[in-house]
Specification:
CATH superfamily: Class I glutamine amidotransferase (GATase) domain
Number of strands: 9
Order of helices and strands: EHEEHEHEHEEEEHHH
Number of domains: 1
Helix content: 25-40%
Strand order of the largest sheet: 2-1-3-4-9-8-7-5-6
Largest sheet: 9 strands, mixed
Structural class: alpha/beta
CATH topology: Rossmann fold
CATH architecture: 3-Layer(aba) Sandwich
Oligomer: single chain
Distance between the termini: 11 Å
Length: 229
């Protein structure tokens, strides 16, 4: 399978998604839209991953590539291809599917528990998630649930943490793909976001327990296996 990964900034990388693809024998190509690289053709890949970034879904004036990116996401959904959106990527997918994307009640940055939604285990994407996991977050916006989607997970700070639309489209507000190195890059490049709040950790707290990254990556492996089937 040929997978294409859309990055919005260089420091929000596919992380363990790239490792998963290599282990499963899938090809993974990347485009960093923030660098001015052109979008890939919709028929040039079999599955799409849309990563996070500091911009908002409606910041088209500052980032004009957002408009054609949304059209590409819409084409992928219509074609029935596997699609994973992470953080900003999930918000873009939700908006394309007809949901509102708004400012969250409060920022959520660092490691905080995510709980699987009641009944989510009845669908494959939900069954790939454990009843509870500690996930890495870095977001200030949130999405409503798209029509005909299923809520997969929620947290204390954010009611909509993950959704599935059909069998092959999944949006995750949290980051299961991160490594310690990627977390450090995010801290270096977006450290101004670390203002005091009930769901904002200090930089050193995010890096205290390296084993958390491995556990999160393993959960993502199961979810990707499910979406790719």
């Amino acid at each position: 399978m040929n997978i294409h990964c859309l990055q919005h900034v260089r420091y929000e990388k596919p992380g363990s998604i790239a490792r998963w693809a290599k282990a499963r024998g899938h090809a993974l190509e990347r485009t960093c839209l923030g660098d001015g690289s052109p979008l890939p053709a919709a028929d040039g890949f079999d599955a799409l991953v849309v990563m996070g970034g500091p911009m908002g879904v409606d910041d088209v004036a500052a980032h004009p590539w957002l408009a054609p990116e949304k059209k590409l996401i819409e084409s992928v959904i219509r074609a029935g291809k596997p699609l994973l959106g992470v953080c900003l990527g999930a918000q873009l997918v939700a908006q394309v599917l007809g949901a509102a994307v708004t400012r969250a009640r409060m920022p959520e940055i660092g490691w905080f528990p995510v709980r699987r939604a009641p009944g989510a285990e009845r669908i494959p994407a939900g069954a790939a998630l454990p009843p509870e996991l500690t996930a890495f977050h870095w977001h200030q916006d949130t999405f409503d649930l798209p029509p005909e989607s299923v809520l997969l997970a929620a947290s204390e700070a954010c009611a909509h943490q993950a959704f599935a639309w059909g069998a092959r489209v999944v949006g995750l507000q949290f980051h299961l793909e991160v490594s310690g190195d990627i977390a450090q890059d995010m801290i270096r490049n977006a450290g101004d976001d670390l203002r005091e709040g009930p769901f904002v950790q200090r930089a050193e707290q995010m890096l205290w327990e390296p084993g958390r990254f491995d556990h999160a990556n393993a959960v993502l492996d199961r979810l990707l296996d499910t979406i790719a089937k």
